Amino acid sequence: MRPLAICLFLFLVIPSLAVVDFSGQVVSVLDGDTIEVLHSNRPEGIRLSGIDCPEKGQAYGTRAKQAASELVLGGEVTLQAYGKDKYGRTLADVFLLNGTHVNHTFNRER
Question: What pLDDT digit, counting tens, does each position of 18-40 carry?
């Protein structure tokens, strides 16, 4: 019983440990490395793990967002979550239903 109590305490105290894998529809692309996916009927911010795209206002920022939108916007994805970043977004590897690993796709396009 004691190990269970310790685990529950850690999940409550350290929210990033409570991150779970899930699937959902991509409802927004904020930039080339950040999307929003429906989770429990609410959009959740997702930061693609290991990807660093230009932000809005930077060179190629618009193109990075456009490429991400063409690949995932409106589609169903499955997430393999790793925790939260300092902005509260879920860090994850993102997979399309056909098995395409979105994070790897962006790394190859660099």
Answer: 567 999 999 999 999 999 999 99
Report yes or no on 6 lying in a domain.
Answer: no
Question: Cα-atom radius of gyration of the chain, to the nearest Å?
Answer: 15
The gap between the terminal CA atoms of the chain, to the nearest Å, is 50
29, two tokens: 């692309």
Query: Which tokens sit at 42?
Result: 């609410």
Catalytic amino acids? 47, 55, 89
pLDDT score, position 110:
47
Structural domain count of the chain:
1
Range of the domain at 61: 19-108
Structure tokens at 30: 């904020």
What's the pTM value of the predicted model, to 2 decimals?
0.79
For position 88, which CATH number holds? 2.40.50.90
